[in-house]
């Protein structure tokens, strides 16, 4: 059974790998891509998404630009832990791919998300792997979205350690009110893939060489993008190994086709939106005697070997 999805991205390097995975895997039907401000400003997350789809021959997938800033906070929160285009920047303003030929779709992200969910009730999985501003905006447009979407798979959050701050992971930190809205909206199934899982699914330089050896556009792009990530993580010391890096967002698309690639447990998760030092923290109630009903399936484990095998298999394909 082919699974329909919409990917909501702030393309960046790992978003790009997730887009290629969703666009090329035979068990997935990527209906559209929606873009949001995050790793880089909206104009670049949109341009980068178009670059990826053009490069792998999937220009038929439309890219719908969304929110250029968070739903409540002012400003355009960008990662603060590294300066853009520095050697610690695992994304870069523009991805290392040819500029796009395709143009953004004229229908905006929130409108597109609502229309698609209404046209295909119960059939479309939402996969946001950036700040949750577009999903929150879609909920504000159509609160009935929670009855139309069977599952939301979110790359975001952290329990053991943050990345943007000691307390918070970037996607949640960049728009905490949006994340709080989405996690408390009442979607029937929310699968949260936090840093605790993505840092257990590292992709190494040896894996990069195997991707490059595929000789396909996706293999070439994935190798280039992950190589950039490994180099930036090595400088920043953010990964457990100097020769590997997490590819956070792609773990969400891998989960859609092989759920066993992550290990989850039901947890009640809320988002801190006020604390000066803790804003954006996903507060996970892991107490054994907790009586708070879980609202998410949270991934705390991942199978790196299976994840890399899936990347290799899907990126051997051409559109
Ligand atoms: C998340 O933040 C971004 O840098 C990545 O694209 C990923 O979605 C990881 O914290
Ligand atoms: Ca992302």
Structure, explained:
- The longest helix is centred in the last third of the chain and has 20 residues, at 217-236.
- β2 (28-35), α2 (42-55) and β3 form a beta-alpha-beta unit.
- The chain is built from twelve helices and eleven strands.
- The strands form three sheets. The chain has a five-stranded mixed sheet with strand order 5-6-11-9-10. A four-stranded parallel sheet has the order 3-2-1-4, sandwiched between helices. Strands 7-8 form a two-stranded antiparallel ribbon.
- It has helices at 13-24, 42-55, 109-119, 133-141, 145-148, 170-174, 176-183, 195-198, 205-212, 217-236, 248-257, 304-315, and strands spanning 3-9, 28-35, 63-65, 124-128, 152-155, 190-193, 202-204, 244-246, 262-271, 282-285, 296-302.
- The protein is of the alpha/beta class.
- The protein has one domain: Inosine-uridine Nucleoside N-ribohydrolase, Chain A (Alpha-Beta Complex), CATH 3.90.245.10.
- It is globular, with a radius of gyration of 18 Å.
- The mean pLDDT is 97.
- Calcium ion binds at residues 9-10, 12, 14-15, 39, 129-130, 249.
Q: Please state how the strands of the largest beta sheet are arranged side by side.
A: 5-6-11-9-10
Overall mean confidence score, pLDDT = 97
Please give the CATH architecture. Answer: Alpha-Beta Complex
Tally of distinct domains: 1
Query: What portion of the residues fall into strands of 2 or more residues?
Result: 15-25%
* Shape, per Cα inertia axes: globular
List low-pLDDT spans. Answer: none
Number of helices: 12
Extended strand count: 11
Structure class: alpha/beta
Major β-sheet, in short?
5 strands, mixed
Radius of gyration: 18 Å
CATH class: Alpha Beta
CATH superfamily: Ribonucleoside hydrolase-like
Bound molecules: beta-D-ribofuranose, calcium ion
> In sequence order, what are the helices and strands, one letter per element?
EHEHEHEHHEHHEHEHHEHEEEH
Span between termini: 19 Å
CATH topology: Inosine-uridine Nucleoside N-ribohydrolase, Chain A
């Amino acid at each position: 059974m082919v699974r329909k999805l919409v990917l909501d991205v702030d393309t960046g390097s790992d978003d790009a790998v997730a887009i290629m995975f969703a666009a090329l895997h035979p068990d997935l039907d990527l209906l559209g891509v929606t873009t949001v401000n995050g790793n880089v400003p909206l104009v670049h997350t949109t341009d980068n998404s178009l670059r990826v789809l053009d490069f792998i021959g999937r220009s038929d997938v439309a890219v719908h630009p969304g929110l250029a800033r968070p739903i409540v906070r002012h400003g355009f929160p960008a990662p603060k832990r590294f300066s853009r285009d520095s050697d610690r920047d695992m994304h870069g303003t523009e991805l290392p791919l040819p500029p796009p030929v395709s143009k953004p779709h004229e229908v905006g992200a929130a409108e597109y998300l609502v229309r698609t969910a209404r046209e295909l009730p119960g059939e479309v999985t939402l996969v946001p792997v950036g700040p949750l501003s577009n999903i929150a905006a879609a909920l504000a447009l159509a609160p009935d979205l929670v009855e139309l979407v069977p599952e939301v798979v979110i790359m975001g959050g952290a329990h053991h350690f943050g990345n943007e701050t000691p307390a918070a992971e970037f996607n949640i930190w960049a728009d905490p009110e949006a994340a709080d809205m989405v996690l408390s909206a009442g979607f029937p199934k929310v699968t949260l893939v936090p840093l605790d899982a993505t840092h257990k699914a590292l992709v190494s330089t040896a894996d990069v060489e195997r991707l490059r050896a595929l000789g396909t556009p996706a293999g070439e792009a994935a190798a280039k993008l992950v190589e950039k990530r490994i180099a930036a993580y090595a400088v920043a010391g953010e990964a457990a190994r100097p020769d590997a890096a997490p590819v956070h967002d792609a773990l969400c698309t891998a989960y859609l086709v092989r759920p066993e690639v992550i290990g989850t447990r039901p947890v009640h998760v809320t988002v801190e939106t006020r604390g000066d030092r803790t804003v954006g923290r996903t507060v996970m109630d892991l107490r054994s005697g907790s009586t708070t009903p879980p609202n998410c399936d949270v991934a705390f484990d991942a199978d790196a070997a299976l994840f890399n095998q899936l990347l290799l298999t899907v990126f051997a394909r051409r559109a």
